[in-house]
Design a protein that fits this description.
The chain is α/β, with parallel strands linked by helices. The protein contains eight helices and six strands, in the order αβαβαβαααααβββ. It is globular, with a radius of gyration of 18 Å. Bound molecules: zinc ion.
């Protein structure tokens, strides 16, 4: 075998014996260009990664439906006891584009994507109605608004809000600029996203 596996096989063996104990959970998009392990140069066992279309966290809703995102969150917080959760959005996100223009390619509403992205429909409608902004500006704005929205939804989960209140869990936002390879970090106080050299 070639690639990363031979170099890391020892690490996999010890992880298999001892189990995983990642301290950070990343919520990222499925987009092939926004892979958290590559962006953070993380090895096996370091990051607990949840990826879905548009890196969204839905609100807490224990209603008997199928909630893969909430299940992963519950496991990370209650079993792995991660110390931080990072919601990482990215530029040129197709899911966000679909939320802004429900007729757009490549993501048509389909059977599932339209429903999933309707989580941010109110924000998408507000951003879409801003004729002062260009299409690119609207896209970037909604990408960042959706990160703040997901962080707010994280706090609707009792397990998250209780541990955050005790100082045992911290929530963060980040936005990856695919075109430059820069990771912008959300300022916790203002919600603004700051370039790496400014943060
Ligand atoms: Zn995306």
């Amino acid at each position: 075998m070639s690639g990363r596996y031979p170099a890391e096989s020892g690490r996999y063996r010890s992880l298999a014996r001892e189990g995983q104990a990642p301290e950070t959970m990343i919520v990222a998009c499925c987009d092939s260009r926004s892979a958290p392990e590559a962006i953070f140069d993380a090895g096996p066992g370091e990051l607990f990664v949840l990826r879905n279309v548009g890196n969204l966290v839905p609100p807490y809703a224990p209603d008997g439906e199928f909630h893969s995102t909430s299940a992963a969150l519950e496991f990370a917080v209650q079993s792995l006891k991660v110390k931080s959760i990072v919601v990482m959005g990215h530029g040129r996100c197709g899911g966000i584009r679909a939320a802004l223009d429900t007729n757009s390619a490549p993501l048509s509403p389909g059977d599932f994507i339209g429903k999933w992205m309707s989580l941010i429909a109110p924000a998408a409608e507000t951003v879409s109605s801003s004729t002062f902004m260009t299409a690119t500006e609207r896209q970037t704005a909604l990408e960042r608004i959706s990160i703040r929205y997901s962080i707010a939804n994280l706090r609707t989960f009792p397990c998250v809000s209780i541990l955050e209140g005790k100082g045992r869990l911290s929530l963060h936002g980040a936005w990856f600029d695919i075109s430059t390879g820069e990771l912008w970090v959300m300022n916790k106080d203002t919600g603004d996203f700051e370039r790496p050299e400014m943060a």
